[in-house]
Amino acid sequence: MARPEGPPPFRTLGEVLRFNASQYPRDEAATDGTARLSWLELLQRAESACAQFRNLGIRRGDRVAVVLPNQIETLVLYWACALWGAIFVGANPRLGFDDLRRILDHSRAAIAFLCESVDAAVVPDTMPSVVLTEKSAFGQSFAASARLDDGDLPLILENDVFTIVYTSGTTGTAKGVVLDHRNLIWCATSTATSLGVTHDDVLLVAVQITHIFGLSAAVLMAAIHAARCVLMREHSAGQALDLCEWEGVTIHHGSPTMFALELSAQRRAPRDLSKLRTGIIAAAPVEPDLVDAIRSVLHCDVQIAWGLTETSPTVTITRDDDPFEERRASVGRPLPGAELRFDDVGGEYGEVLVRSPGVFQGYYDDAPATAAAKSADGFFRSGDLGWLDDLGFLHLAGRLKEIIIRGGLHVYPDELEALIRRVPWVAAVTVLGIPDRVLGERVCVCVATSSDPMPPRDLLGALRGAIEGRLADYKMPDLVVRVSEMPRSEGGKILKRRLREDAIAKIAAQ
């Protein structure tokens, strides 16, 4: 049954879980393909995990590292942290050893929960750890029926920290973003309203719960309306479409890469996606043609959103009643309560600054970085370049740090990439600045090519010919480096620092 008057004004994540367990005790909350839990069962398992926290000496404010894929145990630990006042520190188990070790070291977690695929040596010697397996004693205890009395749980306030989310570190060292209950509740509630989420919806959680996209815009957004979650351990295009058909999925979030792979899979073997209603496409630049294809082939009226880990994440989003062209070529309008400002940084576009209830408290244990990221009046410096059109829709032009300054003139990678993606033999493209003694930087195009149609031998000449006359001459490519694929972070973002290092090495070897 649908909730007639919408959810109450939640203050903390724990309130969300308790409300759903009381109002919809037998309704399914989540499945991961191996188990199905009702809202009441999810609360009971979370409380059981809290009892284990107490036995292990974990206190309110302690960091709990969760290095697990999307599975029931991940959700249980997520909600247990919300109830116990512990701080959820998620990390994708697919991260490399060094990245995982840094997160564990930097967060100073009180305990780490790992899946079997993670090398246990990644955990510092002084940090207790639990490896969760199907036969794990701790995992079995999640199913215990013991309940905690209200007096056993600490009082959680809306400005208490719920999570430290480590950024993907695509251009530098990852930082720990500190988000409180108020940040996340506001953002998830506002995002749910924009998508028209109801109790009857079924959300495919193919984005990682340990990433802000999955943690807030998926799991918490669904929970605000007690919608059901279908968890995927990791994304596979064919499996995602199968689950959409079998589970009656109505909402599907993903990155452009995920949706592009699903389009190919659907064209090869069509599934019944008639129940698929909407979702969010984000985490990387979105081409209008891709949005058109998702809506026509997958029958998913996907919405484009923009935000960052530091903004919980959603700041802007398109809506189903927006003008057609804005819904495919912009990243939408700000959520109610979110403000945008544009700082002049020279060149054609300004840096987008954000002020909203979703803006983070700061970077964990990094006061200088926090001070540099926020203005005196509370605006967060996003590092993205953009502008608002006459209708109030935001358009992006790339990252401030990724501007290429060639001969003193600004070249915007996103602008060039958008044109190159239209070339038939281009499968993927990233534009980078490569150091140059004369010009300062040269424009380097890293391109992955397709086999149908076959690419020409002279890639640089062909690209320049394809886009000639569309951009100023100083924005044209100087170099082309061919790659097999683009290295990506757990959130789907291209790791440009690694790509730049590889490109420089290839150019030097020529």
Characterization of this structure:
The protein has 510 residues and is α/β, with parallel strands linked by helices. It contains 15 helices and 25 strands. The protein has helices at 13-23, 39-55, 72-84, 97-107, 137-141, 181-195, 212-224, 237-247, 256-268, 288-297, 326-329, 367-373, 413-420, 459-467, 496-509; strands at residues 28-31, 36-38, 63-67, 87-90, 111-115, 129-132, 161-166, 176-180, 202-205, 228-231, 251-252, 278-281, 301-307, 314-317, 333-334, 339-344, 350-355, 362-363, 380-388, 394-399, 404-406, 409-411, 426-436, 440-449, 479-482. The protein has a five-stranded mixed β-sheet, with helices on both faces. It has a four-stranded parallel β-sheet with strand order 4-3-5-6. Strand 24, helix 14 (459-467) and strand 25 (479-482) form a beta-alpha-beta unit. It is globular. The relative contact order is 0.09. The model has no long low-confidence stretch (mean pLDDT 92).
Contiguous low-pLDDT stretches (5 residues minimum) are none
Query: How would the global form be characterised?
Result: globular
Name the strands of the widest sheet in spatial order.
Answer: 2-1-10-9-11
Arithmetic mean pLDDT: 92
Number of helices: 15
Number of strands: 25
State the end-to-end distance: 65 Å
How is this fold's topology laid out?
Blueprint: H1 13-23, E1 28-31, E2 36-38, H2 39-55, E3 63-67, H3 72-84, E4 87-90, H4 97-107, E5 111-115, E6 129-132, H5 137-141, E7 161-166, E8 176-180, H6 181-195, E9 202-205, H7 212-224, E10 228-231, H8 237-247, E11 251-252, H9 256-268, E12 278-281, H10 288-297, E13 301-307, E14 314-317, H11 326-329, E15 333-334, E16 339-344, E17 350-355, E18 362-363, H12 367-373, E19 380-388, E20 394-399, E21 404-406, E22 409-411, H13 413-420, E23 426-436, E24 440-449, H14 459-467, E25 479-482, H15 496-509
Parallel strand pairs: 1-10, 3-4, 3-5, 5-6, 9-10, 9-11, 12-13, 24-25
Antiparallel strand pairs: 1-2, 7-8, 8-18, 13-14, 14-15, 16-17, 17-19, 19-20, 21-22, 23-24
